[in-house]
Amino acid sequence: MTIPDFGSDLVGVASRTAVVYVCLLLGFRFLGKRETGQLSTLDLVVLLVISNAVQNAMVGENTSLLGGLLAAGVILALDLLLHTAADRWPAFRNALDGEPTLLVEEGKVLSKNLRDEGISERELGLALRQNQLLRPEEARYVFLETNGLISVIPYRDGEGPGGASNEHDPHGATDEG
Fold first, then answer.
1. Angle between helices 41-59 and 10-31 (to 10 degrees)
2. Contact indicator for 33, 117 with CB cutoff of 8 Å
């Protein structure tokens, strides 16, 4: 199978840029939400290498200022178009972003969801500590959001796992007994 060259003229630059943008968008969508959250050093290196690798695919032999500006303009226009479509059609937004994934429910870690999303126990612990919690049992819900960030919803004061009141004992025991 031959991949079309599209030439080095401005139409070719615009066409190749659009193809690269869509391919990268699909690639990051299928990598999962975790890859789009806060970047680690490794993630940043991957993005820099990818951007360098696809640069030539977008502009080809046209290394002129106009070619570079056109490629940037196509990327910005596609981004605006996709954001507008996502705002207008919820089903399209869901196809682009997915849905939040529940990682902890009522203090219980959902290990399968952690594995499916590529989230380590260490990363979960970090998110809990950033919300002043030490253990998953202290969280009512923890979500991996569609933007790759982890949201933590702690129990309300005086409430614990299963909705039981913990007013008298911070460890969940009651004084009935």
1. 150
2. yes
Shared-domain flag, residues 81 and 106: no
Task: Among 97, 118, 148, give the residue marking a domain's end.
Answer: 97
pLDDT digits (tens, 9 = 90+) for 135-146: 999 999 999 998
Rounded to 5°, angle at Cα 50 from 127 and 62: 145
Q: Is residue 127 scored above 90 in pLDDT? A: yes
Sheet with strand 101-105: strands edge to edge = 108-109, 101-105, 139-144, 150-154
pTM for this model (two decimals) = 0.62
Range of the domain at 64: 10-97
Quick one: 126 and 157 in the same domain?
yes
Provide the strand spans (E) within the chain.
101-105, 108-109, 139-144, 150-154
**Total domains, the chain:** 2
Strand pairing of 101-105 and 150-154? unpaired
Helix (H, G, I), strand (E, B) or coil at 96: helix
Q: Is position 3 within any domain?
A: no
Instruction: Give the pLDDT mean for 149-159.
Output: 86
By C-alpha distance, which of 22, 77, 80, 7 is closest to 54? Answer: 22
Determine, yes or no, domain membership for 66: yes
Cβ atoms of 32 and 118 within 8 Å: the answer is yes
| 57 in the same domain as 92 | yes
